[in-house]
Specification:
Length: 225
C-alpha cells in the first residue's frame, strides 16, 4: 500500500510518515502543494494525506483539480480545529474524510487504513480478487483458485497494482513509479521485463491473456470474455 503525505510542518510530517511506515505502508512525502499535486495526479497512490494550508497550492485546490481530472485516490484532509468551513468545502469538492489538528496518530493510521480498504475492496481476510486471480496482501503472493503463483517481490507488487486497478489503462510511467519508485535507477525497460515475467507465471494457469498491452501507452488487467 502506497501513501502520499503532503504537509508543510516538518515535525508533523515526520511523525505521520514514521507511524505509517511502522504499519508497513510505503510512504512518499513532500511539503509543497504544487509538488504534491504533481505527484498525486499520477494516480499511483492508495491514499493521499493532505494538509489544507500549504505553500504554492492549497489543499482544497489540490482536491478540486484531482477530482476534475478523475483521479479517485481517497483523500484524508488535515485541518485546523476551527476550520469548519474548510472541512465542509473539502468534502464538497471531493475529499473522503478529514482529521482536525492536533490529532492522535493512532486515529490517523486507522483512518488511512479504512480509506485504503474502501478503495481496494479489501475484506477482513486481506484478499483482493479479479476474475480467477486472488491477491493475498498478508502473504504477498497471487493465487489462481487455491494455487500459489510463487511470485517474486516485484512480480507481486506489479500484480497487486493491476488488481487494485482492474480494466484501467496504466501507463508504463505509472507502473514504474508505483512499483520501483521515483528515485529508482532501474533501466527504463524494467516494466516490460516484469510484465513478461508476470505473464509467464499467469500462463502456467492459462491466464496469461489477463494482462493486455495497450500499444504505445502501457498495460491493462482485463479478463478475456
Amino acid at each position: 500500500m502506497k501513501v502520499l503525505v503532503v504537509e508543510d510542518d516538518a515535525s508533523v510530517l515526520e511523525v505521520i510518515c514514521t507511524s505509517l511506515r511502522q504499519e508497513h505502508y510505503v510512504v512518499d512525502a513532500c511539503t509543497d502543494g504544487e509538488e504534491g499535486y504533481l505527484l498525486a495526479k499520477q494516480g499511483i497512490f492508495d491514499v493521499l494525506v493532505l494538509d489544507i494550508m500549504l505553500p504554492n497550492k492549497d489543499g482544497l485546490s489540490i482536491v478540486k483539480e484531482l477530482r476534475r481530472k478523475s483521479v479517485d485516490t481517497p483523500i484524508l484532509l488535515l485541518t485546523a480545529r476551527d476550520g469548519v468551513d474548510d472541512r465542509v468545502r473539502g468534502l464538497d469538492v471531493g475529499a473522503d474524510d478529514y482529521l482536525t489538528k492536533p490529532f492522535a496518530v493512532s486515529e490517523l493510521v486507522a483512518r488511512v487504513r479504512a480509506l485504503a480498504r474502501r478503495k481496494a475492496g479489501i475484506h477482513i481476510d486481506n484478499k483482493l480478487t479479479y476474475g480467477k486471480i486472488t491477491v493475498k496482501t498478508d502473504l504477498h503472493d497471487g493465487y489462481i483458485d487455491t494455487e500459489p503463483m510463487k511470485l517474486t517481490i516485484k512480480e507481486y507488487e506489479l500484480l497487486e497494482f493491476f488488481v487494485r486497478n482492474p480494466e484501467r489503462i496504466l501507463t508504463k510511467e505509472q507502473i514504474f513509479d508505483r512499483v520501483w519508485g521515483f528515485e529508482s535507477d532501474s533501466a527504463s525497460n524494467v516494466v516490460d521485463v516484469y510484465v513478461h515475467h508476470l505473464r509467464k507465471k499467469l500462463a502456467a494457469f492459462q491466464c496469461h491473456s489477463y494482462v493486455k498491452t495497450i500499444r504505445g501507452v502501457g498495460y491493462m488487467l482485463k479478463e478475456t470474455q
